Amino acid sequence: MARKASLSGFPEWLPQERLVELHVLDTLRRTFELHGFSSIETRAVETLGQLLRKGEIDKEVYAVSRLQADDDGRPPSEDGLALHFDLTVPFARYVVENAGHLAFPFRRYQIQKAWRGERPQEGRAREFTQADIDVVGDGVLPFRYDVEMALVIVEALGALPIPEFVLRVNNRKLAEGFYRGIGLEDTAGVLRSIDKLDKIGGDRVAALLRDELGASPEQASAALALASIRTSDTSFVQQVKALGVENPLLDEGLRELEEVIAETSQRAPGRVVADLSIARGLDYYTGTVYETIITGHESLGSICSGGRYDSLATKGNRTFPGVGLSVGVTRIVSRILSQEFASVSRSVPTAVLVTLADDESWSAAQDVATALRLRGISAEVAAAAEKFGKQIKFAAHRGIPFVWFTGPDGKHEVKDIRSGEQTAADPGAWTPPAEDLHPVVARA
Fold first, then answer.
1. Of the candidates 387, 415, 391, which has an alpha carbon nearest to the alpha carbon of residue 401?
2. From CA 309, how far away is CA 322, in angstroms rounded?
């Protein structure tokens, strides 16, 4: 069970909890690399101007200043520094600054901390880890990458110790074209209202559309009718057309979303659905948008989100379109721990404790431990030559499965303290069973 942090919103894991987090990170990293994504890391800070130029997140940014700097009481300027609130905006800057050194389309994954000054709750921290994948092109980026992204992330999440999940996909062109087709020109405002549908419900969203955006009751009803469409196949196309709205951008978005769902429904049946309520609040998304929900844990929110952005990264007349997804690692780990979705075989990496018969045997015990480590077996040496019973008890308390003994005649024996079985062993040849070589994280 995850503990509550002493400083709200800044989680710290116990060793066994950290093993679960490492398992999640290693699984994601392995999957991303199998699909050809290269790892990068960007700096923790960006200029305020860079961070605030897209989306409405200014109240969530942590500004950074030096204690020695003059404090004149004014808010930080755009030249000031702030901790990044996600990895997409820093990545866009990274691409622009390093375009001459990158091969396009550039496939990257990035696993780092991010910071947001929002109200902490389960699954929503102020300091958290994200794992992002993106493909960025130079000038153009084939739409097929939007399909590939969905398949990669379904494979990655499917390997984690979590229950069933659904990747929900929509297309901003589809939504914006529909809104224009019914006469609502403030498409960004409509999207922001629709993005609140899961949180506040249809009646309140309709009220927002009427009161804040000037929508008529008929327009609000049509927007909600579009958002109610959800299918696991391409039948959503006919459902949208049945609403009787015409717009070229709507048609383009329908074709793109149909391509995503047609392919993913074959390769990952039941994992990916067309959900026309998905809007994504950030302004830089221009096409496909994704959100991922754990079935039965909808209150947790999306564990993996992202989309297509055609103009986030630009350099003069040069544009770098991309598509990407961000996995909320801390959100996922928090739910795994709180709901005990996974178990850990032990809380320490140590597989073997090498005992001491007396204080003079410490050097020889280190030789045994060194021989084991050279073959990839984690080992530590007892700190004191206490009675063997106490040394065994220490190993059991630590969760170490094996204890090593060296007799006065130089013969070695190893004991599995769980079963009590004790056998002769050679430091240069003995290996524990594969399941005991490292701590194992398994679905509960």
1. 415
2. 5
Model confidence, pTM? 0.91
Contact 339, 354 (CB under 8 A): no
pLDDT tens digits, 157-210: 999 999 999 999 999 999 999 999 999 999 888 988 888 888 888 899 999 999
Angle 400-401-405 (CA atoms, 0-180°, nearest 5)?
90
User: What was the pLDDT predicted at 69?
Assistant: 61
Would you give the distance in Å from CA 242 to the centre of its chain? Answer: 37
- 8 Å CB contact between 279 and 170: yes
What is the mean predicted confidence (pLDDT) over 62-88? 77
DSSP collapsed to 3 states, the chain? CCCCCCCCCCCCCCHHHHHHHHHHHHHHHHHHHHCCCEECCCCCEEEHHHHHCCCCCHHHCCEECCCCCCCCCCCCCCCCEEECCCCHHHHHHHHHHHHHHCCCCEEEEEEEEEECCCCCECCECCEEEEEEEEEECCCCCCCHHHHHHHHHHHHHHHCCCCCCEEEEEEEHHHHHHHHHHCCCCCHHHHHHHHCCHHHHCHHHHHHHHHHHHCCCHHHHHHHHHHHCCEECCCCHHHHHHCCCCCCHHHHHHHHHHHHHHHHHHHHCCCCEEEECCCCCCCCCCCCEEEEEEECCCHHHCCCEEEEEEEEEEEECCEEEEEEEEEEEHHHHHHHHHHCCCEEECCCCCCCEEECCCCHHHHHHHHHHHHHHHCCCCCEEECCCCCCHHHHHHHHHHHCCCEEEEECCCCCEEEEECCCCCEEECCCCCCCCCHHHHCCCEEEC
Q: How many Cβ atoms are within 10 Å of 233's Cβ, its own excluded?
A: 14
| Distance of alpha carbon 237 from alpha carbon 80, whole angstroms | 47
Residue 400 has which token pair? 């170490």
- pLDDT tens-digit series, residues 84-117: 999 988 999 999 999 999 999 999 999 999 999 8
329 CB-side CA count, 13 A: 28
As given in the structure block, the two tokens for residue 188 are: 């960004």
Q: What region, left, alpha or beta, does residue 347 occupy, with left being phi > 0 and alpha being psi -120 to 50 degrees?
A: alpha
CA-nearest of 6, 7, 9 to 334 is 9
